[in-house]
């Protein structure tokens, strides 16, 4: 198990359980999930670019970004008259990716979810 996926140091009595619930609630909006994925892919984007990518109006995307910024998931940088947004760290993207993988499992109905790689069949060696 990878150290970043090790849950042995997280307990039921962690003082961060309530805050974690708030983070998950904040990420429960599809537009915010798309914003996180877009920022994970492109590293830094303006409101206009994000609005185009997620298919929403810039004013709505700006409101979502404000909430993500208040939660310290995104940060900004001024570039001329534009404000550029980026993820603070990799954790928000990791949460979103894991949630999508869980969703794939939920609808897989006994099949192998797309994120699981099936090993290629081993072909027997050609005999001379």
TrEMBL record:
Sequence ranges assigned to domain HTH arsR-type in this UniProt record: 12-107
SUPFAM superfamilies: Winged helix' DNA-binding domain
Record CDD domains: HTH_ARSR
Natural source organism: Flaviflexus salsibiostraticola
Keyword Transcription: yes
Record GO terms (molecular function): DNA binding; DNA-binding transcription factor activity
Keyword Metal-binding applies: no
Entry keyword set: DNA-binding, Transcription, Transcription regulation
PROSITE patterns in alphabetical order: HTH_ARSR_2
Pfam families from the UniProt entry: HTH_5
Protein name: ArsR family transcriptional regulator
């Amino acid at each position: 198990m990878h150290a970043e996926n090790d849950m042995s140091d997280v307990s039921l009595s962690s003082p961060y359980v309530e805050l974690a619930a708030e983070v998950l609630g904040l990420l429960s909006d599809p537009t915010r999930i798309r914003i996180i994925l877009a920022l994970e892919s492109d590293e830094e984007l303006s409101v206009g670019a994000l609005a185009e990518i997620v298919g929403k109006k810039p004013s709505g995307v700006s409101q979502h970004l404000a909430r993500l910024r208040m939660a310290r998931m995104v940060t900004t940088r001024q570039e001329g008259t534009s404000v550029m947004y980026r993820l603070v760290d990799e954790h928000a993207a990791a949460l979103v990716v894991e949630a999508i993988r869980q969703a794939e499992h939920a609808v897989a109905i006994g099949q192998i979810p797309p994120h699981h790689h099936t090993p290629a069949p081993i072909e027997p060696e050609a005999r001379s």
